[in-house]
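Running this now, will post back.
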Amino acid sequence: MRTRFARLYGARDLRIEEGPVPTPREGEIVLRMAAGGICGSDLHYYQDGGFGPVRVREPIIPGHEAAGHVETLGPGVSDFRIGQLVSVNPSQPCGHCRFCREGLPIHCLDMQFMGSAMRLPHAQGMFRDYLVVPAIQCHPAGEAVSAGEAACAEPLAVCLHAVTQAGELSGKRVLVTGAGPIGALVVAAARHAGAAEIVVTDLMDAALERASAMGASSAINAVKNTAELALYEKDRGQFDVAFECSAAAPAIRSAIATVRPRGLIVQVGVTGDTAVPLNALVGKELRWIGSQRFDREFSVAVDLISSRRIDVRPIISHTFPISEALAAFEQAGDRSAACKVQLTFLA
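Update: finished.
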């Protein structure tokens, strides 16, 4: 058996190649891949050869948010059925390092995260027709949802973890800065958690429309409607919690200005060094915490998608076959039109 895959050699050097499918070992499954989403990190690899200190230093198959159908069960695997749709958790913590022993597998010192260039050799990803993966990383999706929906479990898990970082949201006033795929899914996760009001900001009207479809109470174009956004700065801030999903310096400053004293900012977006108004952060006694990846939230995300208690369909904007992966990555870079761009494979 052979498989096609999209392999990145450097900035804008993405090639469709072919190779053999390994024989599954004990505890592994062969998946016939169906859908895979292009994440922001995949896009940075493609456009810039990496982000910050993380660089593509050898050929890498990108893709860490995907779903597929069970094709073959390896030795010792019996909990799945042939043809079953599953979402694939890309995280493989080692289970025995200091942080794994402390119950913090997100911070595993030997984390294998599919499609990541953070370590050498790079951890290869899921943009391929067939994938051999440990069964423990596969989570059955519901019969009622599409493979594209099931492939959104990974980004939704990121957002569920961010919402968990914020604690109790029931009845709270929430700001979400940045309405890309992560921002839109944070809106959905915050709504599911009981937030009373969710205001989302972005520079693109199309992104704001999708965030509204995901549950935002109101959507503000931060360039066109500066006066409307400034109203939330009244009396030292109106929001209880902000989820900063853009990593843009103006958005960070806006979050600090509009969150009430002793409020919370959860930083979800990532970038390099940026200037921060520390006097306002200190003067308002704000808490500013980071949030990365996920742990148990992945299985929760699959369940929420499978039941459509969180409907991810509004964020899926474009779909391309793997043979047109180059066009898919170019489309993903156009924020005026694209949100979640997905590749499709054999299924």
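Residues 270 and 297 are 20 Å apart (CA to CA). More later if anyone needs it.
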